[in-house]
Automatic annotation (TrEMBL):
Protein name (record): Protein translocase subunit SecE
Location within or outside the cell: Membrane
Quaternary structure (record): Component of the Sec protein translocase complex. Heterotrimer consisting of SecY, SecE and SecG subunits. The heterotrimers can form oligomers, although 1 heterotrimer is thought to be able to translocate proteins. Interacts with the ribosome. Interacts with SecDF, and other proteins may be involved. Interacts with SecA.
An individual GO BP term: intracellular protein transmembrane transport
Lineage: Bacteria, Pseudomonadati, Pseudomonadota, Gammaproteobacteria, Oceanospirillales
RNA-binding found in the keyword field: no
GO MF annotation: an example: protein transmembrane transporter activity
Length: 122
């Protein structure tokens, strides 16, 4: 891509991000201004403005790269090998046993040090 095309694209992105910020600001101010109206109507208006802002944001270079990242993450999640129920239960029990054991060890060390300090002090 040439330098002038990159500059033109970045200027367009700056304008798009300004539109996104403006839409979000309109949603916040409008929600506050129309606080006497029904919550349902205000929620619908905020969701519509947020949807439009999201659509505009996804049409920027960073938005497209975010969409690509999200698509790749979804593909990667399909490749994950999830543990079976038995593996999950066993791992949970091991973690629980280690936590209980370490808490007893720390309680014992704390009590021992407390007795030693009490004996020294007095």
């Amino acid at each position: 891509m040439s330098s002038s095309a990159e500059t033109q694209e970045s200027r367009g992105d700056v304008f798009k991000w300004a539109v996104v910020v403006l839409l979000i600001a309109v949603a916040v101010v409008g929600n506050n201004y129309f606080s006497a109206e029904s919550l349902l109507y205000r929620l619908i208006a905020v969701l519509v403005l947020a949807g439009i802002a999201g659509f505009v944001a996804l049409n920027t270079a960073k938005g497209r790269s975010f969409a690509k990242l999200a698509k790749e993450a979804k593909t990667e999640i399909r490749r994950v090998v999830w543990p079976t129920r038995q593996e999950t239960v066993q791992t949970t029990l091991i973690v629980l046993a280690v936590v209980i054991f370490m808490s007893l060890v720390l309680w014992g060390v704390d009590s021992l040090l407390g007795w030693i300090v009490s004996a020294v002090i007095g």
